Amino acid sequence: MEDLKIVYYPSPILRNKSKNIETFNDKLQEFIDKMIDAMYKYDGIGLAAPQVGENIRLFVMDPNEGEPFVYINPEIIWMSEEKVKYEEGCLSLPGIYAKVERPAEIKIKALSREGEVIEQHLKELAARVFQHEYDHLNGILFIDRISQLDKFLIKSKLKKLEKEYNKQNR
Ligand code: NI
To answer: In the Cβ-directed half-sphere of 161, how many Cα atoms lie within 13 Å?
Structure first.
């Protein structure tokens, strides 16, 4: 398997709803390792499979720069009423940052890379990154969740990415 390449905005791959993973074979394990490598290589704290071209429900994250976590077929089963605003960025949208309001805490359910059930209560940056990556699996980008003013402020940067993408994919 070759090294993974980042899929950039506005690729339609980023807008698809990803499919559940049902087979936990060696190919999947190899793909997960490549995703973890790519996350560190590109200096990300999270990376979702659609961002490397696969519309499958899987992401990796390392919000506290300690160890990589792998989530397969994740679900958010509870969200706190308390919300917090925090600046986000995305490897698929280089150079773009904006504040996004999200629930401060969540409870999640997912499968590990071995296919075992994981249940966690996430707070702070872990809750934030989980929600950002989870959105990727549903074709949602953080720029979909920002204020009208911020949308206006990043407009020219988005246009630049669109131009670049069209050049690469002509
Ligand atoms: Ni992202």
So the answer is: 17
